[in-house]
Amino acid sequence: MTTSHILTLDCPDQPGIVAAVTAGIAGSGGNILSNVQFSEPSVERFCMRTRFTLAATGDHHDLVEELEATVRSAVNVGDGGLQIRPAEHRTRTIIMVSRFDHCLRDLLYRWHAGELPLDVAAVVSNHWDLQPVAAQYGVPFVHVPVTRETKPQAEGRLLELVDEHGAELVVLARYMQILSDDLCRKLDGRAINIHHSFLPGFKGAKPYHQAWERGVKLIGATAHFVTADLDEGPIIDQDVARVSHLQTPEDLVIIGRDVERIVLSRAVKAFAEQRVFRFAERTVVF
């Protein structure tokens, strides 16, 4: 019997990183199943994702701790991160929505079907409309109304829910509220938004109508990390669909929703599988 683990490393680039990791795994009696790595000279950063197994001899927890200590002693992790998790780890997730249901339904379906390695802790919304959808999948629904006057209290409640559920990921699945700069900073690196346009592009209300008015031939969607710079966070995934003059604005909305669903699910899956690394304003997605 063996156990499977995933090691992720994000650190300043330096000689000997791969050698240190592979030697550490071998020294722990492990066997590497897959390994991907990337070095970016412009920012002098290195990232790596390694899946490996450990034989069922000794205490696996102790072996993992020893392996982490071995790598840290040989590699300057700096302000980056080194993490070793069981491969079967399921990312604790809160999904936020407003009234559009297509992304929520898609995520819950994929989660229920076993396509996404998530543990969905709650669905949070500023409206009651989608409570039946959460109930259908047996997920707790939390109504947190938001007005201009109550926004600080609402965001405080969200942070309470994140702490209460130990959420590692917050997904804005067409949550139609702008998060404050303070909340963006507190959720930095663990909040993903789906933007209903191929960024950079048409911003504001009715982006598909704006695109139609400009006679675009491609529409798309963008999943990105949430930052204080509205809709300008590091991009995780994107896709497009080709359209023509034959489509109406309503047709573009329907096509766009399909793209939004697949882009968001891909981004969430990549994050949950620990395949996303941030390099300044960019991402590396293995």
Which SSEs are present, and which pair or pack?
Blueprint: E1 2-12, H1 17-27, E2 30-40, E3 45-55, H2 60-74, E4 81-86, E5 91-97, H3 102-112, E6 118-125, H4 131-136, E7 141-143, H5 151-165, E8 169-172, H6 181-186, E9 191-195, H7 207-213, E10 218-225, E11 235-242, H8 249-272, E12 276-279, E13 282-285
Parallel strand pairs: 5-6, 5-8, 6-7, 8-9
Antiparallel strand pairs: 1-3, 1-4, 2-3, 9-10, 10-11, 12-13
General description of the model:
The protein is an alpha/beta fold and 286 residues long. Helix content is 33%, strand content 31%. It is globular and about 60 Å long. The relative contact order is 0.13. The mean pLDDT is 92.
Helices, by number, come to: 8
Number of domains: 2
CATH topology of the largest domain: Rossmann fold
Structural class: alpha/beta
Question: Per DSSP, what share of the residues sits in E-state strands of 2 or more residues?
Answer: 25-35%
Largest sheet properties: 7 strands, mixed
Strand order of the largest sheet: 7-6-5-8-9-10-11
Return the CATH class of the largest domain: Alpha Beta
Fraction in helix:
25-40%
Shape: globular
Which labels suit this protein?
single chain, 286 residues, alpha/beta, Alpha-Beta Plaits, Rossmann fold, 2 domains, seven-stranded mixed β-sheet, four-stranded antiparallel β-sheet, 13 strands
Compose a concise summary of this entry.
This protein is of the alpha/beta class and 286 residues long. It has 8 helices and 13 strands.
